[in-house]
Amino acid sequence: MSVNKSTIDSTSCFFVVKKKDIESIIFYRTFGTLPKYECLYKNSKGNKIFGYRTKHQFYGTEYTTVITYNEGTYKLQKSTYETNKLRIIDSFEDLQRRLESSKGKERNRSSVEREVAGIILKKYNSVIKYEIIDALEGKKKPQLKFWIDEENEKKCEKTFGKNVLFTDKQKWQTKKIVKTYNSKNLVEDDFKLLNDHLLVPVGPVYHHKDENIRVHVFLAMVGLLFYRYMAWEIKMYGFSMKKLIEKLSEIKIAVVQEKESKKSKIIVEEMDTKQASLFSFLNMEKYLPY
Predict the structure, then answer these.
(1) What is the pLDDT of residues 168-194, one digit of tens each?
(2) Which of 33, 50, 71, 174 has the fewest Cβ atoms within 10 Å of its own Cβ atom?
(3) Residue 164 domain boundaries
């Protein structure tokens, strides 16, 4: 996969940090040119992850800093931006038309400001600019002007697909830093599983004694370990945890009765190819209550 040089060359990166005693710190700097970025690895979607390593001070301490670039993320963020931009422009043009019309009730400046605030996304305030002009004499509505700040739009686009990471793991290789950070979704998925799909979900907790709560959480973690071990066992299928649970939960058993003998037996309902393969690989038949 080739890298779009215009999106990674002389890139402006923004990093916002919120802290209890500091409202916000905005980190702005130009980080190198294309040759300074190295391809670190390919992610599960086949996108190349690039990184540029440097050092920078945060809160008075120097940290190892890695600027990452993912062209797949760039394309997604670019597409999202263009979609939102068109929606905002269409809404502004519609508002302009209604304000220029002599029909309808009288409107004041504050009502127009409220409508504009509902149209434009805060993160695009620096790109899509507007001006509300007070109603002229003899008119009952203010007027609206809007425009695209092309310079800020270019700056905004240069942040697409990029992330700024800083760490005190000075001895870690760049690839390890980035892969560790990008693995955070596994932890996030586990927290979701603890609330949703496990045999013993964490919540709600109907216990009041500490020892009972500990046992409850322990059983939830055992369930999580069970799912993680099972996911490791069937890793060759390439299923995400969510997909694995979905496939297994759709496997159904039924009790049927033979017409002549009146005997009942348990059967497995029809499965798709992947489910049948999982059923066989995990030897699930031995758990059926024959």
Answers:
(1) 889 999 999 999 888 887 777 777 778
(2) 33
(3) 5-71+159-176
Q: Which residue has the tokens 């695009």?
A: 124
> What's the predicted TM-score (pTM) here?
0.62
Q: Are 29 and 60 in contact (CB under 8 A)?
A: no
Asked if residues 171 and 64 have their Cβ atoms less than 8 Å apart, the reply is no
Give the least confident one: 32-46, 86-100, 268-282.
32-46
Mean pLDDT of 136-145: 89
Same domain for 143 and 202: no
Please tell me the distance from the alpha carbon of residue 181 to that of residue 166, in angstroms, as a whole number. 10
Query: What is the count of structural domains for the chain?
Result: 4
Residues 145 and 259 in one domain: no
Same domain (yes/no): 133, 24: no
Q: Are residues 80 and 152 in the same domain?
A: yes
Same domain, 34 and 142: no
Output phi, psi for 163, to 5 deg. Answer: -145, 145
Residue partners of 194: CB distance under 8 A and separation at least 6 = 201, 202, 220, 224
